[in-house]
Amino acid sequence: MTDNRALLERLLETQRIDLHRGALFDEAPAPLLASFDWDRVDGMLLGLAIGDALGNTTESQLPARRREEYGEIRDYVPHWRRKTLATPTDDTQLAFWTLDQLLIDEGLKPAHLAQRFSSERIFGIGKAVSQAMEAVRLGYRPWHECGTRSAGNGALMRIAPMLVPYVRSPSTDLWVDTTLSAIVTHNDAASTSACLAFVAMLWQLLGMDEPPEPSWWRREYVRLARDLEGETSHRPRGGAFAGYSGPLWRFADERLAAAEAEDLSSLQACDQWWSGAYLLETVPSALYILARHAGDPEEALVRAVNDTKDNDTIAAIVGAAVGALHGAAALPERWVTQLSGRTREFDDGEVQRIMVRARERWA
């Protein structure tokens, strides 16, 4: 038994992780074909960084206000003050610091990841991540007790790189490492179940020859997340469904099924349930955009950037998914070539350098 697995089992047994030990933990990812092209992994990573950079400078604006000011955004918007282009937020930083740390440690050492996050300057750091990293820095309790009980999207936005070391050697340890990585910042059943479900879906997308049919996104998320999250009690922050109380997976199932039946546009649907940094908003928004537009990577990202409020994170999630499905070669060249690739203020190209090292190590 690996050290990480033994730790996870102990934390689950003592109920120090807010998560059910669902069936996924005993299901190894299906091996990818020998002919699998690493371009799909590069696409997943680039798609995340591109989505984040496309949304960065208009993050948190309501879609109507954003449209008034910029029209429809289809390319990087310069920063209003510094005039820099295609720069990252915390989504790219935390995702690529995760991948870099996996390379340094030759796998996940979650205590090292927690120290990495807590010692770096994080752009636009969210409240939950800030609280968790402050607890790590103070050192009053072990790293696995520092994650906040939060259903924000700060763990989901950075989780995609966890599958990279397992692409050529699938194992149930992928679910162990994903869980431990997630709880570094967010120890919440909705958050960790969403992270596990998304990584499992990304794995499947890497092996697909064509986009899944639209309802797959909803059905597969619910199948994976339901017995991991269980019957939690979360409430929307507002929007048309403020009276709901229950788990994230059920809210996503009900709202997505209704939007599908009404054939709502992504803008209409995301406006109904809002589209901010809370998972009851982020998860249905990302899944609905993918259900409608996964066949066209550019349009999927354009809709994520224009039709949602927390557009950098939702576009990063959508970008990782369409990148895994279509590969880096299918992403618009102008977005790829103009991407700054920063993970810090002045380390242009670091994203691309980390990707090269990951390919050399695990391809």
Quick synopsis:
The chain is mainly α and 363 residues long. The chain is built from 16 helices and no strands.
CATH-wise, what's the superfamily?
Answer: ADP-ribosylation/Crystallin J1
Overall number of structural domains:
1
- Enumerate how many helices there are, as a single number: 16
- The number of distinct β-strands equals 0
Stretches with pLDDT under 50, minimum 5 residues: none
Structural class per helix/strand content?
A: mainly alpha
Largest sheet: none
Q: Could you characterize what this model shows?
A:
The radius of gyration is 19 Å and the shape is globular. It has a single domain, classed as ADP-ribosylation/Crystallin J1 (ADP-ribosylglycohydrolase fold). 56% of the residues lie in helices and 0% in strands. The chain has 16 helices and no strands. The longest helix is centred in the first third of the chain and has 18 residues, at 39-56. By secondary structure, the protein is mainly alpha-helical. The chain has helices spanning 3-13, 39-56, 63-70, 90-105, 110-119, 127-138, 173-182, 189-206, 215-229, 248-262, 266-273, 279-293, 297-307, 311-326, 333-338, 350-362. It starts with a helix and ends with a helix. The mean pLDDT is 96. Helix 10 runs parallel beside helix 12.
Chart the SSEs and their pairings.
Blueprint: H1 3-13, H2 39-56, H3 63-70, H4 90-105, H5 110-119, H6 127-138, H7 173-182, H8 189-206, H9 215-229, H10 248-262, H11 266-273, H12 279-293, H13 297-307, H14 311-326, H15 333-338, H16 350-362
Helix pairs in contact: 2-14, 2-16, 4-5, 4-16, 5-6, 7-8, 8-9, 8-14, 9-10, 9-12, 10-12, 11-12, 11-13, 12-13, 12-14, 13-14
